[in-house]
Design goal:
By secondary structure, this protein is an alpha+beta fold. It has helices at 48-54, 78-86, 110-115, 158-162, 180-183, 195-207, 237-245, 266-280, and strands at residues 16-17, 33-38, 41-47, 58-64, 69-77, 95-100, 107-109, 118-124, 131-136, 139-144, 149-152, 172-178, 213-214, 217-218. The strands form four sheets. A five-stranded mixed beta sheet has the order 3-2-12-6-7. Strands 4-5-8-11 form a four-stranded antiparallel beta sheet. The longest helix is centred in the C-terminal third of the chain and has 15 residues, at 266-280. The radius of gyration is 19 Å and the shape is globular.
């Protein structure tokens, strides 16, 4: 799976090819298309070639958080891509929802894109093809990144560097401009929820909903976490806190990594996520189609 710095109980890998296998660099952009939505309504679709005609690609060197090494990608500035799709209005929106081929759906605040330098990569330098190598469950796997990989300039940005792989989705094929309340209404806590629960909801959206759903809304990589049974209904808070904090303390080589160790006020955020899950246990909505 991609970054999984949130409450992730099971992860599924994207498409993999054996180590040593690669595609030629001239093949990496074939068939790479990105679809843009606005609150789930179609706006446009752009191919790599269409973007090249409007935006000059750049060679971008980053500290790749999965390989933990310097890697050079060919990429478009994400701001310019969003300008092409939406015009300048996207800058006033709340969040961007990225959808990936394996069901991973991270939500990144628009403010992060405005405050830091993000790029939409479509090829990698060297002879590795458009792939990265990840170490997961005790093995090294080569992961295909196509159609697109969101990367961040992090050598001169300590905050982005410290946040590791947060905000680095790969296999991205769709972008949607959203607001939390409209996109995640089934996931929203009861109206009378206190500030801790509300903060936990916002943290869950950013860190956990990319893999997990609540009441049918969210990512499809990990399991649904509220319907029919919420984890707080079968796990004591202490064990749930331990799992989010360090899954390796409970399982040998778990697929789930811990909540981002470099998050400021991390213990408080874990408590808020658990408070949110506790509140949602009595606020179940049967997912449509279930």
């Amino acid at each position: 799976m991609k970054r999984a710095d949130g409450l992730v109980f099971a992860l599924a890998m994207g498409a993999c090819v054996p180590l040593g296998c690669s595609r030629g660099p001239d093949e990496s952009s074939i068939g790479q298309t990105l679809t843009f939505l606005n609150e789930s309504r179609p706006v446009t679709s752009l191919t790599v070639e269409a973007l090249k005609a409007r935006i000059e690609p750049r060679s971008v060197e980053v500290f790749e958080p999965y390989e933990r090494a310097r890697v050079t990608f060919t990429a478009f500035p994400l701001e310019k891509v969003l300008d092409q799709a939406y015009g300048p209005s996207w800058r006033t929106r709340e969040a961007i929802l990225f959808t990936c081929r394996d069901g991973y759906q991270p939500t990144i605040p628009v403010r992060r894109v405005l405050d830091h330098r993000a790029f939409l990569a479509f090829a990698r330098g060297g002879n590795a093809g458009f792939t990265i190598v990840k170490y997961e469950e005790g093995t090294r796997k080569r992961i295909e990144l196509a159609p697109f990989y969101v990367i961040w300039e992090n050598f001169g940005d300590p905050r982005v560097r410290n946040e590791g792989d947060y905000g680095w989705p790969y296999q991205v094929f769709q972008i949607d401009l959203i607001s939390f309340q409209s996109r995640f209404r089934e996931m929203a806590p009861p109206p009378d929820a206190g500030p801790e629960v509300t903060a936990g909801f916002e943290a869950f959206v950013v860190h956990c909903s990319k893999c997990h759903a609540i009441n049918g809304r969210g990512g499809a990589v990990g399991p649904e976490l509220n319907y029919p049974v919420n984890p707080t209904e079968y796990l004591k808070d202490g064990w749930l806190r331990k799992w989010i904090d360090d899954p390796t303390s409970m399982r040998l080589a778990p697929r789930m990594p811990p909540l981002n160790p470099d998050l400021p006020e991390r213990p408080r955020i874990i408590d808020e996520i658990i408070a949110y899950l506790n509140a949602m246990a009595s606020h179940k909505i049967e997912p449509s189609g279930s």
